[in-house]
Amino acid sequence: MMKKKLLFIYNPLAGKSKIKNWLSSIIEYFVKGDYEVVIYATTGRKDAKNIVMDCLSRETYDLVVCSGGDGTLNEVIGGIMHSEQNICIGYIPSGTTNDFAYNLKLPKNLPKAAKVVLTGEEFPCDVGIINGEYFTYTAAFGLFTDASYETPQTTKNMLGKLAYILEGVKRLPNWKSYHMEITCGDRVINDNFIYGMVANSISVGGIKGLTGKDVQLDDGQFEGIFIKMPQNVMDFQSIINDLLKGNLNSDHIFSFPVKEILLTSEEMVPWSIDGEYGGEFQTVNIANLQQAIKIIRNKEEIL
Ligand SMILES: Nc1ncnc2c1ncn2[C@@H]1O[C@H](COP(=O)(O)OP(=O)(O)OP(=O)(O)O)[C@@H](O)[C@H]1O
């Protein structure tokens, strides 16, 4: 009988090379699950996406499994979206921040996460598209968004989460705001923003709850959050208070569901997509592609 085929792609450097100790047991587990396993280690940016596109164009697979951080997952999802096969994805989170893993209730322990790949349930999940590129859970600009991608991977591994925090704090005194026009449905907003995010996740940048309580990953809608430039210290304090209280509709913060959104600015705005640098744009179009991918999530609460 023909064996089922599994394509396994991992980032060997993600999260302090955590995968290295577990590689053999993970592969054995898939083999025992009756899969023929094709394995690739990624060697740099966009590699995971290219591997997926290349492999899926040549052969039929039953499952694609990736291991790495949110960046690797983003690339694998992008590769699948660009290919003809709407193949199901299994994910073994091994990055520094694994925001998306939280949504899927995936265990932090790698062999346990591998087990979920074969025992979990297929979940039809929304995918975002920003100016033609796919994203899994967040597209953002402004404050803190450049913290993760401006830190090279080696430094990021050494410092772990601290890197993000330090990078962010360092930036506090020279906040940059962007004048933008935001169009979403009937809503048109013109203002100066220090931060904006369109997200489909409970956890963003390792912070849980920022996107509110009603995050549904398959409802065809993202959460949009936009923070205006504070004019003085009091404004700044009330933004912090609002964020801490989860009050996302205030004098300084706009938040609303997003199916499609258009953002225009007179200057180039750098964007962060799934926690990695995503390019600079004057015009940004974002849309939610409802239930566009199949991803395996844990059936049990084990967090
Ligand atoms: N061998 C490699 N060397 C350098 N960069 C790589 C390599 N393989 C993949 N990458 C790139 O590194 C980026 C980040 O990887 P990934 O998201 O897997 O891990 P991480 O940075 O440790 O975790 P996180 O993104 O959750 O913080 C990805 O965009 C990926 O393209």
CATH class of the largest domain: Mainly Beta
What is the percent of helical residues?
25-40%
Compute the number of structural domains: 2
CATH topology of the largest domain: Tumour Suppressor Smad4
**Beta fraction:** 35-45%
Judged by helices, strands and strand pairing, the structural class is alpha+beta
Give the rounded overall mean pLDDT. 86
> What characterizes the major β-sheet?
9 strands, antiparallel
Amino-to-carboxy terminus distance: 38 Å
Order of helices and strands: EHHEHEHEHHEEEHHHEEEEEHEEE
Give the beta-strand count: 15
Number of contiguous helices: 10
The assigned CATH architecture of the largest domain is Sandwich
Which molecules are bound in this entry?
adenosine-5'-triphosphate
Low-confidence segments, ≥5 residues, pLDDT <50? 151-161
Output the radius of gyration.
Answer: 19 Å
- The 3D shape can be described as elongated
Protein name: YegS/Rv2252/BmrU family lipid kinase
Keywords: Kinase, Lipid biosynthesis, Lipid metabolism, Magnesium, Metal-binding, Phospholipid biosynthesis, Phospholipid metabolism, Transferase
Organism: Anaerocolumna sedimenticola
Family: Belongs to the diacylglycerol/lipid kinase family.
Written account of the structure:
The protein is α+β, with helices and mostly antiparallel strands. The protein folds into 2 domains: 4-126 and 293-297, 3-Layer(aba) Sandwich (Rossmann fold); 135-290, Tumour Suppressor Smad4 (Sandwich), CATH 2.60.200.40. Helix content is 30%, strand content 38%. It is built from 10 helices and 15 strands. It has helices at residues 14-17, 23-32, 47-58, 70-82, 99-103, 110-119, 145-149, 153-159, 161-171, 233-245; strands spanning 4-10, 35-41, 63-68, 89-93, 121-130, 133-135, 138-142, 178-184, 187-199, 203-204, 207-208, 222-228, 253-258, 260-273, 276-297. Strands 5, 6, 7, 8, 9, 12, 13, 14 and 15 form a 9-stranded antiparallel β-sheet that branches. Strands 2-1-3-4 form a 4-stranded parallel β-sheet, sandwiched between helices. Strand 14 (260-273) and strand 15 (276-297) form a beta hairpin. Helix 2 (23-32) runs parallel beside helix 6 (110-119) and helix 8 (153-159) packs across helix 9 (161-171). It is elongated, with a radius of gyration of 19 Å. The two termini are 38 Å apart. Bound molecules: adenosine-5'-triphosphate. Adenosine-5'-triphosphate (ATP) binds at residues 11-15, 42-45, 47, 68-72, 75, 95-98, 153, 156, 275-276.
